[in-house]
Amino acid sequence: MSETINYLHSETSTANGVEIGLLVKYLLMDAIKAGASDIHIEPWETTLVVRIRLNGVLQELVHLPLEYMEKISGRFKVLANLITYQNGLPQEGHAPADPELGGVEQRISIFPTTRGEKIVVRLFDPSNRSFDIHSLGFDPETVEVFLKMLTKPSGLILLTGPTGSGKTTAIYSALYHLVQRSGSTMSIATVEDPVEFSLPMISQAQTNAAQNFTYPIALRSLMRQDPQVIMVGEIRDPETAAIAVQAGLTGHLVISTIHSGSTAGVFARMINMNIEPFLLSSSIIGVLGVRLIRKNCTYCSQPYEPEAGLLALIPREMAETAHFRKGAGCEQCMQTGFSGRSSVTELLTVDAAFRDAVLQKLPTRALQQVAIQRGMQTMWQKGLHRVAIGESPLEEILRVISVDEA
Ligand SMILES: [Zn+2]
Fold first, then answer.
1. What CATH topology corresponds to 130-400?
2. Using one digit for the tens of pLDDT, what is the confidence trace for 141-153?
3. Does domain 10-127 match CATH 3.40.30.10?
């Protein structure tokens, strides 16, 4: 960070020491002002480090004396209505929107480590949450095909990508699009863990493991109410997978996420959850893979040449014609060289040929080849395109997207 913010200046210090409530408020305000998505407060050997996640990457904000640790975690426990005297067990809670913090909500998680409590605060800023499908950074072709998938009356649309890759924002944008398109004529319901943002005209439910309100129980009950569109936060067990597929086959449009390394890998993952290939091939409409990449700062980006070792990873004709650019770091981007993020996608459309391939139980690699033959552009190819037009440096694409094995 270019400037060290003085958190221990006169305002937070009193005759009795440091005013922890004010200190915590300043940390939150600075993180929000910087556009951070999370704050991580963690006891290291000799210091309490405060880091913020900016555009998906952690950066140090400030180091505080270790002796403030307990008071700071105590303050967050009060904010989130947690048990303040308990410090040996993990706790999670939610601090409601604070007008003084611009209406930002906090999801607070406290985890006991051998050095003390580690705190992670996720920040939800309603003012920068846009659920416009056109503003996610999808390439125009993906938007067009994805929107077409959303017109289907039944079937499954699955999104895949690691945590923090923009799956939830993409799903919320899809639901928001359906609301805008159909208004009150469409019944849309969700089951999520947890509900991250409240959407208009949609019934959202949050699972609650302690009360045994699980995905399967919620979905079975929801099916009896017969909504047209069902969003399932995540398919991660065979029971949820079976109900989601069943719903997709019986006249519901089901949108969900699933953990998989690639779009083609989703089919093997579902088969591992005991779903028969013939059910998969007839229920899944498409799989959208998403990753978020940081974009070059427009103020300081300049032409550069990637290292030879990295250049060797990309097709020669591209290496020769690409307009490689990289941010040098400036005040506007807090010396990171990046400003904002964009989604890179891979959209696998299930057509007749692909359906046959699924029925034949082809391995993931072969399924991917079929999808490519049917016109799918891989995430790697799309990422390289962003590099070629100078939107992001090659190193950034390599950080988040795995290289296609030719
Ligand atoms: Zn810059």
1. Rossmann fold (3.40.50)
2. 999 999 999 999 9
3. no
